[in-house]
Amino acid sequence: MIEIVRKGAEQAGGVVSLARELGIKHTSLYRWARVPAARALEFERITGISRHDLRPDVYGAKEPPE
């Protein structure tokens, strides 16, 4: 499992809880090479991990605070 998904699972109360919230089987999370772009916003809502950290290729890098 990739590190960001592992961290997200911790935030969501475990792998099974995260998968349930996403509406997928928990074994699917182990196959992700990165969070799918179509799941990034939902993953962010569930875990609190920024979409910019999940998929900087889609959402761009997080802006530094001024």
Could you describe the 3D structure shown?
With 66 residues, this protein is mainly alpha-helical. The protein has one domain (3-59): 434 Repressor (Amino-terminal Domain) (Orthogonal Bundle). The chain is built from 6 helices and no strands. The chain is globular, with a radius of gyration of 12 Å. 20% of the residues are buried.
User: What fold name goes in the CATH topology slot?
Assistant: 434 Repressor (Amino-terminal Domain)
Biggest sheet details: none
Individual helix count: 6
Give start-end ranges of low-pLDDT stretches.
none
Q: What is the share of helical residues?
A: 55-70%
Gist of the model:
By secondary structure, this protein is an all-alpha fold.
Write the layout of secondary structure elements.
Blueprint lengths: L2 H10 L2 H8 L3 H6 L8 H8 L3 H4 L1 H4 L7
List keywords for this structure.
single chain; 66 residues; mainly alpha; 434 Repressor (Amino-terminal Domain); 6 helices; 61% helix; globular
